From TrEMBL:
Any one GO molecular function term: transmembrane transporter activity
Name this protein carries in UniProt: Disrupted in renal carcinoma protein 2 homolog
Topology versus the membrane: Multi-pass membrane protein
Compartment(s) of residence: Membrane
Keyword annotations of the record: Membrane, Transmembrane, Transmembrane helix
Residue ranges crossing the lipid bilayer per the database entry: 28-51, 71-90, 126-145, 165-183, 195-212, 218-236, 257-279, 285-308
Organism: Sipha flava
InterPro entries: FLVCR1-2_SLC49-like, MFS, MFS_trans_sf
Length: 321
């Protein structure tokens, strides 16, 4: 189930760099990443239907298993159809639309894997950016995945948990498109836009921590509103960080940079899941604190990333954008 995602992000950044002009790249990357996440919103609609049962009757495991298998076959058919559609409709020859696109194609033809990885690992600016990207997801992704469990412990109806998860993704989709559009219209300010959105998220994550851990006033309405602000504002700027990484490491291929960021991000998130598996009660208290602390750390590392803005300004002065 995770094999496709390994290739999606690097290819998404490569298509953005080679097919779109400089002033449309953030929007292209943001749209692709937002739509990819929007697809997961269907689980909050389909899930309750699959596991539903007649009122007053307990769910039958065998019937639910049969429904899940049919759903998986439908998903497989859709995936095959989309793959065939891409193979049939995607142009066979790339015509670069801008000077940066030509550079991107040239870098992919001449790049050497080990040399590129060595350059990435030795660059401190890349580490700052990667840590800013990965730390924001390290705790927030597992927290959102445990949303039904958290609501259940608070005796919130499961229907509200599904609705909250659905609107969480829809809000993130809208914010991703909005911030990507602003980034394209205000070139050179991607870092500032990312910081603003993360600071907004940080305020609501702090509020969430107070409610969950320090007995601040908690109502169902307040909890849902805080969640719908905290996590979408944390995630909506990820496409900007991908583009910042690509700009920072020119002339290295964008796919290498995006793959590097995705690899470390997945590694950090997996470590959190391992901790949750080994220490099941970790999520009852420390996860709420961790999501706030890691968000603070991600902002600090983003502030330390200064090489991107200098490089982007220099490119603008020489007319390469």
């Amino acid at each position: 189930m995770s094999a496709g995602g390994v290739f999606m992000t690097p290819l998404m950044i490569t298509i953005s760099a080679q097919w779109f002009p400089k002033n449309e790249r953030n929007m292209a990357t943001g749209f692709c990443s937002a739509v990819a996440m929007l697809g997961s919103a269907a689980t909050y609609i389909v899930g309750p239907i699959v596991v539903s049962s007649s009122p007053g009757e307990p769910p039958e495991p065998r019937a639910i298993r049969d429904r899940i298998m049919r759903l998986l076959y439908v998903c497989f058919g859709i995936s095959v159809f989309v793959t065939v559609l891409v193979l049939a409709a995607f142009p066979k020859h790339i015509k670069p639309v801008s000077y940066p696109s030509k550079l991107s194609m040239a870098s992919h033809r001449s790049a050497k894997l080990m040399h590129s990885l060595t350059v990435l690992v030795k660059n401190s600016e890349v580490w700052y950016l990667v840590l800013a990207f990965a730390l924001s997801n390290t705790m927030s992704a597992p927290w959102s995945a445990l949303l039904p469990s958290t609501f259940s412990k608070l005796h919130v109806p499961p229907e509200l948990s599904a609705e909250c998860g659905l609107f969480l993704i829809i809000h993130n989709f809208a914010l991703s498109l909005t911030i990507s559009t602003f980034a394209d219209r205000a070139p050179g300010y991607s870092k500032e836009l990312a910081l603003i959105s993360r600071l907004v998220s940080l305020v609501f994550l702090f509020w969430l921590m107070l409610m969950m851990n320090f007995h601040a006033k908690l109502t169902t309405t307040t909890l849902v509103c805080v969640i719908l602000m905290a996590f979408p504002y944390c995630w909506c700027n990820q496409s900007l960080l991908y583009e910042m990484g690509a700009e920072l490491m020119v002339p290295l291929p964008e796919s290498f940079v995006a793959g590097y960021m995705t690899l470390l991000n997945n590694l950090f998130v997996d470590c959190t899941y391992v901790v949750l598996y080994l220490f099941p009660h970790f999520g009852d208290y420390w996860l709420h604190i961790g999501v706030f602390v890691f968000s603070v750390l991600s902002i600090i590392f983003l502030l330390l990333t200064t090489g991107w803005s200098k490089k982007d300004t220099a490119k603008t002065k020489h007319g390469h954008v």
